[in-house]
Write a structure and sequence with these properties.
The N and C termini lie far apart (127 Å). The protein has helices at 3-10, 13-16, 24-78, 81-92, 128-133. The chain is an all-alpha fold. Helix content is 63%, strand content 0%.
């Protein structure tokens, strides 16, 4: 036997044995990989939420700009005497001297008909057996 082979066979088991099992490396690599994926997933979720909020705020900004445009147009119209006169006539019911104001008043609606089982018909209520027989 060669000397190297003799050393391999007869060395004591202590110093030449593996201290760390072989499965620890792959498990550690998978764990680190999962930690990295979790870190990036959390960052991606935060980015997604911020992008949704940006889109929502952009829509709100556009709606407010449209509302501002409508209000600017209203301000521009309020500086004209014809528009002021129209508002005074329509909303306040004002008239010029010598004019006659005619106000159309809608009639108040009649109260709702009571339900058939609640009574309150044209006359006194018939007993149930007469109503059942149709008399």
């Amino acid at each position: 036997m060669s000397e190297a082979a003799a050393r391999r066979v007869y060395l004591p088991p202590g110093p030449s044995r593996r201290i760390i099992p072989r499965w620890v490396g792959p498990v550690l690599a998978v764990g680190v990989g999962l930690a990295v994926v979790a870190a990036f997933a959390g960052a991606y979720w935060d980015l997604y939420q911020v992008q949704r909020e940006v889109a929502s705020l952009s829509r709100e900004r556009d709606e407010l700009r449209q509302g501002n445009a409508v209000l600017r147009e209203e301000i521009r119209l309020l500086r004209t005497p014809a528009y002021i006169e129209r508002l005074a006539r329509e909303q306040l019911g004002m008239v010029k001297p010598g004019e006659i104001a005619i106000m159309l008043v809608r009639p108040t609606p009649a109260p709702a008909d009571p339900s058939p089982g609640a009574g309150g018909g044209a006359g006194p209520r018939k007993p149930w057996w007469l109503r059942l027989l149709g008399r």
